[in-house]
From TrEMBL:
Signal sequence segment: none
Lineage: Bacteria, Pseudomonadati, Pseudomonadota, Alphaproteobacteria, Hyphomicrobiales
Keywords: Kinase, Phosphoprotein, Transferase
EC number per UniProt: 2.7.13.3
Source organism of this protein record: Afipia felis ATCC 53690
Alphabetical list of Pfam families matching this protein: HATPase_c (PF02518), PAS_3 (PF08447)
InterPro entries, A to Z: HATPase_C_sf, HATPase_dom, His_kinase_dom, HisK_dim/P_dom, HisK_dim/P_sf, PAS, PAS-like_dom_sf, PAS_fold_3
Keyword Transferase assigned: yes
Protein name: histidine kinase
Residue span(s) of domain Histidine kinase: 120-335
Length: 335
């Protein structure tokens, strides 16, 4: 016996037909039939509750169904099941649409972040390229002299190599966003990541007259993570701090970076001591939201992307207003 909704789900007329076991099995999706028959047989043999999610074929279309039955014994001692059947089809369609929308938004956000990141580092790439040209010309001059200044030429050539490495590191940040890359996990030192990214911004920091003080513990434990992802986090944080400090005038522009660890987590802080943040309390809570920005241009997905990466490592990232001026961005990663 069943309700009208029960018969509607299976496409059976309650007046004309009885939904017996054979009809029910015939309506099961071919890919689910063996599993459903097996689990049903086990439940009947053990007299246990039956809970199943499966597909049926109705009018040539696939429907998603959930059934739950509880065992009962009638007066003759026969085992019967009484329960419910729920049509999940519309809910499954909504879930699928939501997943597709999420995937599209993720791709759009990543590409938007790629565009923003690319625009923001054009200057970072152009400067090293200019420096490469200068060092290469210096090397040529030293080699063209007589007698040849070998040591000076070697030093100029070394500068070309080192600056080329910085260019590659910067472009690697773009590749992470442009590709659907899987995380490449390894044991890494976060202090090494911080110093690498600081090297990328050396020219920008000097040009913006921003002094940097680093307080990093020695012998920090290694973290298991993706080096490029963590580089991207530090890159985004530093880029935002530099952008904010460019608006500071009439007082020193100072950036303090600290990194310490205890038995539970590693805490890294970037402290803007220049007082460059005009962010109010409400905006502080939204700094890591997608598409939120206090700047006149840009979509500001960098901090949102950074939060996503840190949270994927079960870490935390947040901003605090300093007592004197400026703000501090902190991130904590579990050990």
């Amino acid at each position: 016996m069943g309700s009208r909704e029960f018969f509607r789900i299976f496409g059976v007329s309650p007046e004309a037909e009885k939904l017996d076991l054979e009809i029910w099995i015939a309506k099961l999706h071919p890919d689910d039939r063996d599993r459903v028959e097996r689990e049903t047989s086990i439940a009947v043999a053990t007299g246990s509750t039956l809970q199943l999610e499966y597909r049926i074929m109705k009018d040539g279309r696939v429907r998603h169904v959930y059934s739950e039955g509880h065992p009962e014994t009638n007066g003759d001692g026969d085992l019967l099941y009484r329960g419910i059947v729920i049509d999940l089809t519309e809910g499954k369609a909504a879930e699928r649409l939501f997943a597709e929308t999420q995937a599209e938004l993720s791709t759009a956000s990543r590409m938007a972040a790629l565009g923003e990141l690319a625009g923001s580092i054009v200057h970072e790439v152009n400067q090293p390229l200019t420096a490469l040209k200068t060092s290469a010309e210096a090397c040529r001059r030293w080699l063209s002299r007589y007698p040849v200044e070998i040591s000076e030429a070697v030093e100029a050539a070394n500068q070309v190599v080192n600056k080329r490495k910085r260019d590659v590191a910067i472009v690697s940040g773009l590749e992470v966003l442009a590709e659907e890359a899987q995380a490449n996990l390894s044991f890494i030192r976060i202090d090494g990541v911080i110093l690498e990214v600081l090297g990328m911004f050396r020219d920008a920091l000097e040009e913006s007259s921003i002094s940097v003080r680093a307080d990093i513990d020695e012998g920090l434990p290694e973290l298991r993570g993706d080096r490029l992802q963590l580089q991207q986090v530090v890159f985004n944080l530093l880029r935002n701090v530099i952008d904010v400090m460019k608006g500071v005038h009439g007082r020193p522009r100072r950036l303090e970076i600290s990194c310490h660890a205890d038995d539970v987590e590693m805490l890294t802080a970037l402290r803007d001591c220049g007082g460059g943040s005009g962010t109010n309390t409400n905006d502080m809570n939204r700094l890591f939201d997608p598409f939120f920005t206090t700047r006149d241009s840009g979509m500001s997905l960098g901090l949102f992307r950074s939060r996503s990466i840190i949270e994927a490592y079960r870490g935390r990232i947040w901003a605090e207003r300093n007592e004197d001026c400026g703000l501090t961005i902190r991130l904590a990663l579990p050990l």
